[in-house]
Specification:
alpha+beta; 1 helix; flat
Amino acid sequence: MKITLIIPTYNAGALWPNVLDAIKQQTIYPDKVIVIDS
């Protein structure tokens, strides 16, 4: 099974350390991470 994580964001640069920590805490890592900055 392949997992893709899609993260929509808008001016959330200061939150990226928290987002990356949350991704690392998952039991199954995504194969791809797609960030959509609008």
